[in-house]
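Task 17 of the worksheet. Students: predict the tertiary structure of the chain below and write it out as structure tokens. Keep your answer in the requested format; marks are given for formatting as well as content.
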Amino acid sequence: MKKEINLIGMVRTLWAAKRPLVTFGIIFFIMGVVVAFNTPKSYTSTVVLAPEISSGMGLSDGISSLASMVGVDLSSGSTVDAIYPAIYPDILASTDFITGLFDIPVTTSLDDKVETKTYVEHLTQDGKVPFYDYPKIWLRKLINPKVEQFDAKAELDPLHLSRPQYDLCEQIKSSIECIIDPQTNVISISVGDLDPQVAADVADTVQNRLQQYILVYRTQKARQDLDYSLSLLDEAKAEYDKAQLEYANYTDAHKNSILQAYITRQEELESEMELKHGIYTQIAQQTQMARAKVQERTPAFTIIQRASVPVIPSSTPRIIRVLSYVFMGMMFNAIWVLVIKRKKYALNHEA
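Model answer:
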């Protein structure tokens, strides 16, 4: 037979143990107040943007039509992008991206002092350590007395981070959150910090860095093609100018000549000049198409919500912390009475 739980008996037993209940409640209430007032508030600034989704590298119909007029087929190069919104959080969490935020300037407003310093200086100088973290710090120093301290002047190599640099990267990484809406691909970037102004500054920087990262990736191949076309255009222009000058000099030097050899040579130079001009014109058209391709590949981002300085803290309200500790105290009291001291209070109740 299954043993039935006597809820009424449990309630009566707990009621009989009113004194431990009050004791646990007062102790945990005091603990909750101390923790709540020693835990620094944190603020979160959020940026919301919608990226342009490209299904491939093909150009629009209008530009493709222009390309076909000069004999260039650009429709066959359509491929799917390797970078798409779903992996943006991984980009923001990469070591290269995080370490790139170390030296960005931020404006701090803690303690009514407005200062401009680097993000690393703010994190290492302005952070407040709660009292309940000191035992953990002491224990870490006890286990490893030679623990390395963070040195702002130390060389930063993303491939070989020191332990303090790695810990700082993890701290920054935990303060940045990137959420992608799978239905609309809308990107929400949130940055938390003890200083609301710093949270807004970093959120704005992260947004701009992500946009620049995507822009460089999307246009890298097209810009390489454009640079190559520009170099060919310069060469073709130089060859055409050289052929034009040679034809002009020869024509001026033999303008009164009626010898067939001079006429034949003049026609050869004219044909060569026209050939160089045709090559130059064709490359110029291809260069214009390369410029159009760069423009076509440049992604567009619609900023739905810009970074702003938060006014209301995003951390857990102090009253909630206190109430959670009181509830925890009541749970400990219930375990104490019903499990550890069950027989004692049960007998008292029966008596």
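Marker's comment: Residues 215 and 298 are 6 Å apart (CA to CA). Residues 40-314 form one domain.
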